Amino acid sequence: MGFKRTHTCGALGVEAVGQSVKLCGWVHRRRDHGGLIFIDLRDRWGLTQVVFNPKADSPLHAKAKELRPEFCVAVEGKVSVRPPGTENPKIATGKIEVAVDRLKILNPSATPPFEISEEAQVSEELRYTYRYLDLRRESLRDRLILRHKVLEVIRRVLSEHEFIEVETPILTKSTPEGARDYLVPSRLNPGKFYALPQSPQLFKQLLMVAGFDRYYQIARCFRDEDLRAERQPEFTQLDLEMSFVDEEAIFALIEKVFSAIWKEVLHQRLSTPFPRLTYTECMERFGSDKPDLRFGMELVDLTGAFAATGFRAFREVVESGGKVKGLVATGGAVLSGKAVDALTDAAKAAGGHGLVTVRVTEKELICPVAKHLGEEALRKAAAQAQAKNGDLLLLVADKPEAAASVLGALRTHLASTLNLIPQQNFSFSWVTDFPLFRFNPELKRWDSEHHPFTAPREEDLPFLEKDPGKVRSRSYDLILNGVELGSGSIRIHQRLVQETIFRILGLPPSEVQERFGFLLDAFRYGAPPHGGIAPGIDRLICLLTDAPSIREVIAFPKTQKAVDLMTGAPSEVRQDQLKEAGISVVKQNRGV
Ligand code: ASP
After folding, report:
1. Is the CB of 199 under 6 A from ligand 1?
2. Which atom of ligand 1 sits closest to the CA of residue 533?
3. How many angstroms is it from 488 CA to the middle of ligand 1?
4. CA of residue 267 to ligand 1 center, whole Å
């Protein structure tokens, strides 16, 4: 039978009853019932029930008996209404079925190593080895389709704003984004290597020097990091850059892009502008530079209440310029003694030295060190923190930022334990005014907080060489529900400032010249002021689809050991390939 399908497996409804149709797809399920054979035929668009009736065509029915899960088939038949009581309201085609009068097996299937269903419990190892089968599952299919729609919206909105999509090289030179580079040997230049881009950072800046004004790219980035749960060695960013703009122009553009995504993909309205918070404010109020604004529980400064406490651990901290910070866990008094003890461990894991807990009941404040702290001070603190009956008040005394970040870690932990996070909400924010540098105590040097191309705040320029720790940057992070979706900055566009930054970072001029000479050179030719951002696409899709991991929104992901289980990459290569590339492999005994 010449097989041009007339419909997809998600298309047919009652309006098609009586029509003769042709469908192609995979055998999703087969059920034999009272002589009839029912097949759920599946393709990307959905499922359609097709029926083989032995009374209508016995040889055809016999052929249908051969069908097994995942056979790829074509059928032709008549659409009919399903008998009353057998409709399936869960699927779009649930009111009809197709009475088959022709069947062609396009390709049989070996027995799949796992059932293609949402319910099947399958190990990740098996799923990634047979990813092409895993991708036949509805949830993965839907996530990839949604991903496509998001990219489509991004491209359209940016085109409407006169951005142009430009591809930048994959074989390139190292860009400092803080991770290790993936290296590629150059056969034509023995002993020399390309680096895969950690981001297109320098190219996008050079496109601004070139006068393109507005660039974007759905860019693949490569970072050779030890893979924590939510990292992939290669990932995708919406990389963009604009000329002659300030922070607000970039925020407004990104808010437009995200509003369009939410509207067109989720059919939800985002409220804009997103709240803007400075880094200092975030640390003080939420103990994190990625604040989750879906719930309250802000930190309170209770130093005043304990100014005269007899509790040495607190007094010493206060006397040396530290702070006592408090956090009220709403309804936290219900937590068991064990759960409260676990909070102390969590506080230590977050770098804290200790944690004081206060259960607030109607009659009293129950705190293991109440005597030392002083009843009066405790009452004052609880009142100031507005702790109510049934709450748990947590106190940490430490250097201001340390106290805040310990409580910040406990804040998100407790909010999720106590079910205080509204799951359906999306809460965006911008965090600004980060420090430009962070001191690296191990290497005794200043490192860039974002990357070395970030512009300092103009008013902080006088401190640049004298007191680098005081300089704020013009970088910004886009935060969604406590997750950093992307960072960006207004860039340095003047050669002298860029050279000063490299000097503060301790890069010798010869190294600067070798690594970034082309950028500094470009700045000599009328480089315009510019800035940009790069939101992570994988993480965005993960949040949009509530996927358990970014691996579930990437078609062919790698495992935590950076291995592609399906292709077997990375793998050894042939001797002659190594020889050609001028490489000899030193076997490493990594031990066990
Ligand atoms: N290149 C930066 C990054 O990958 C983003 C940016 O500054 O635009 O984080």
Report:
1. yes
2. 8
3. 5
4. 29
Instruction: Compute the distance between CA of residue 106 and CA of residue 70 in angstroms, rounded to an integer.
Output: 11
**Amino acid (1-letter code) at residue 452:** P
- Please work out whether the CB of residue 532 comes within 6 Å of at least one atom of ligand 1: yes
CA 424, 430, 435, 437 dihedral sign is positive
Encode the chain (592 residues) as per-residue pLDDT tens digits: 567 999 999 999 999 999 999 999 999 999 999 899 999 999 999 999 999 999 999 999 999 999 999 999 999 999 999 999 999 999 999 999 999 999 999 999 999 999 999 999 999 999 999 999 999 999 999 999 999 999 999 999 999 999 999 999 999 987 777 889 999 999 999 889 999 999 999 999 999 999 999 999 999 999 998 877 678 999 999 999 999 999 999 999 999 999 999 999 999 999 999 999 999 999 999 999 999 999 999 999 999 999 888 899 999 999 999 999 999 999 999 999 999 999 999 999 999 998 999 999 998 999 999 999 999 999 999 999 999 999 999 999 999 999 999 999 999 999 999 999 998 789 999 999 999 999 999 999 999 999 999 999 999 999 999 999 999 999 999 999 999 999 999 999 999 999 999 999 999 999 999 999 999 999 999 999 999 999 999 999 999 999 999 999 999 999 989 999 999 999 999 999 999 988 999 887 765 4
For residue 409, report the distance from its CA to the centre of ligand 1, in Å: 25
Q: Is 488 in the pocket of ligand 1 (CB under 6 A)?
A: yes
User: Which of 175, 173, 235 shows the shortest CA–CA distance to 451?
Assistant: 175
For residues 24-50, one letter each, b for 16 or more C-beta atoms within 10 angstroms of the residue's C-beta and e for the rest, the string is bbbbbebeeeeebbbbbbbbebbbbbb
Please give the sequence-ordered ranges of beta strands (E in DSSP) within 250-354, or none if there are none. Answer: 276-278, 300-301, 323-329
Measured from the Cα of 489, ligand 1's closest atom is 7
Is pTM, for the whole model, over 0.70? Answer: yes
What DSSP string describes 536-580?
Answer: BHHHHHHHHHT-SSGGGGSSS---TTS-BTTTTBS----HHHHHH
Which atom of ligand 1 lies closest to the CA of 198?
4
User: What atom of ligand 1 comes closest to residue 532's alpha carbon?
Assistant: 8
The 3-state DSSP class for residue 148 equals helix
User: Of ligand 1's atoms, which has the minimum distance to the CA of residue 239?
Assistant: 8
Q: How far is CA 335 from the centre of its chain?
A: 31
| Residue 537 Cα to ligand 1 middle (Å) | 13
Half-sphere exposure of 206 (CA within 13 A, CB side): 15
388 C-alpha to ligand 1 centroid (Å): 44
Q: Whose CA is nearest to atom 6 of ligand 1?
A: 488
